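Re: Re: ligand-bound prediction request (bumping)

Still looking for help on this. To restate: I need the protein modeled with nickel (II) ion bound, output as structure tokens. Inputs repeated here so nobody has to scroll up.
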Amino acid sequence: MAVRPIVQIGDPILRQKAKRVKHIDRSLDPLIEDMIDTMRAAPGIGLAAPQIGVSLRVMVIEIDGELTVLINPEIVKREGEWEPEEGCLSVTGYVANVKRSWAVWVRAKNRQGRDVRLKGEGLFGQALQHEIDHLDGILYVDRLDSLDRLRKIEPGRKRRRGRAAEAVSQAAS
Ligand code: NI
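Reply:
Sorry for the wait, this slipped through. Here it is.
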């Protein structure tokens, strides 16, 4: 498929509430494959459809080679708190520590249209929260008390295991 340009902060599509997918069938495959290719090329550990300009509730995450594709995901329960470092492929050149739940329980459909329920803790839980926020038009910078908390990162910085959410840099990632 194809690597697509990643929409950057300031584009109104990132602020829209993405639409639920009504019919889950093979017609979604090109979108999903492009999202996977774009996430891997960045590289990042997650991507939401609005980030490639498609306002639909579709998201992908890949951590340690484990790929998760979710459609119409919803967080149904949360537990614990932490404040991990986070970045976003749509907010390049910055990271910040963001308050997140430690664990989330998510209900969604998979790409075959079947119901799935999953629990994500730590980095995977953080990525689930980050990508589901994208589907609601929310960016991690909205969750900071102050934009002074943003830290600039130099291009070329590598993602560090366990510390980055979507991408600790696109500059880096
Ligand atoms: Ni993001």
